[in-house]
Amino acid sequence: MYFAKLQNVPTSPRKMRLVADMVRGMEVNRALGVLKFSSKEAAARVEKLLRSAIANWEQKNERKAESGELYVTKIFVDGGATLKRMRPAPQGRGYRIRKRSNHVTLFVDSKNNNADQN
């Protein structure tokens, strides 16, 4: 199992999870296509992360990944640090703004490896 991590992404975890759910369990070339043509801002970050995970797999196995071989086995999004900011509000009040961030972890592996482990 080969993975890549993306930490302290300045978008809310909820928005990132929408993108993560799109590619979970998909074959990597298909996932790259889905991410490339997605209108979500987080999709570009996940696409770069997926390319990194594929490169990690290729580096360890010392060969190029063929199409249909690698799959996104696991992808999950955890909440990161939250920056707390104040916004002016009516009548001298201040409303708290929470600027959320997240961490994404993406695992890729080939189907035949999964069958051996189970």
From TrEMBL:
<dbReference type="GO" id="GO:0003735">
    <property type="term" value="F:structural constituent of ribosome"/>
</dbReference>
<keyword id="KW-0687">Ribonucleoprotein</keyword>
<dbReference type="InterPro" id="IPR005727">
    <property type="entry name" value="Ribosomal_uL22_bac/chlpt-type"/>
</dbReference>
<keyword id="KW-0699">rRNA-binding</keyword>
<dbReference type="InterPro" id="IPR036394">
    <property type="entry name" value="Ribosomal_uL22_sf"/>
</dbReference>
<dbReference type="InterPro" id="IPR001063">
    <property type="entry name" value="Ribosomal_uL22"/>
</dbReference>
<comment type="subunit">
    <text>Part of the 50S ribosomal subunit.</text>
</comment>
<comment type="function">
    <text>The globular domain of the protein is located near the polypeptide exit tunnel on the outside of the subunit, while an extended beta-hairpin is found that lines the wall of the exit tunnel in the center of the 70S ribosome.</text>
</comment>
<dbReference type="GO" id="GO:0019843">
    <property type="term" value="F:rRNA binding"/>
</dbReference>
<keyword id="KW-0694">RNA-binding</keyword>
<comment type="similarity">
    <text>Belongs to the universal ribosomal protein uL22 family.</text>
</comment>
<keyword id="KW-0689">Ribosomal protein</keyword>
<comment type="function">
    <text>This protein binds specifically to 23S rRNA; its binding is stimulated by other ribosomal proteins, e.g., L4, L17, and L20. It is important during the early stages of 50S assembly. It makes multiple contacts with different domains of the 23S rRNA in the assembled 50S subunit and ribosome.</text>
</comment>
<dbReference type="GO" id="GO:0022625">
    <property type="term" value="C:cytosolic large ribosomal subunit"/>
</dbReference>
<dbReference type="Pfam" id="PF00237">
    <property type="entry name" value="Ribosomal_L22"/>
</dbReference>
<dbReference type="GO" id="GO:0006412">
    <property type="term" value="P:translation"/>
</dbReference>
<protein>
    <recommendedName>
        <fullName>Large ribosomal subunit protein uL22</fullName>
    </recommendedName>
</protein>
<dbReference type="InterPro" id="IPR047867">
    <property type="entry name" value="Ribosomal_uL22_bac/org-type"/>
</dbReference>
